[in-house]
């Protein structure tokens, strides 16, 4: 069986998962957020976790374009929402949709890759 894993992407996905749990725990035990900051923080953490799960899958199957689009999207989307929840300027809210678009394009890129005949996407024993 061909080794499909991308070690760098697996490391990045692992760090993103670690950070997601750490940030969520920090918020649950150390922050006293009010609305709308609490909503922003929870949304950032939820999308951070979903993105981390996708990154893990993409790292295991070497879907690099989708992986890095999703990583960029997560950093922008969740990063801006985390920052706003912690008191950063509200203009970051205008940047959040760019992160969302990157995540959408990551899924679209994964979908498109299923139509390509590529020996790297097949498992040979």
How would the blueprint of this fold be written?
Blueprint: H1 7-30, H2 37-60, H3 64-85, H4 96-113
Helix pairs in contact: 1-2, 2-3, 3-4
How would you describe this structure to a colleague?
The structure is a single chain. The protein is mostly helical and 125 residues long. It has one domain (7-121). Helix content is 70%, strand content 0%. The chain is globular.
Condensed summary:
This protein has four helices and no strands. It has helices at residues 7-30, 37-60, 64-85, 96-113. It is globular and about 50 Å long.
Main attributes?
mainly alpha
Mean pLDDT over the residues: 90
Helix-strand string: HHHH
Number of strands: 0
Query: What is the general shape?
Result: globular
What's the number of domains? 1
The unreliable regions are none
Helix content: over 70%
* Main sheet overview: none
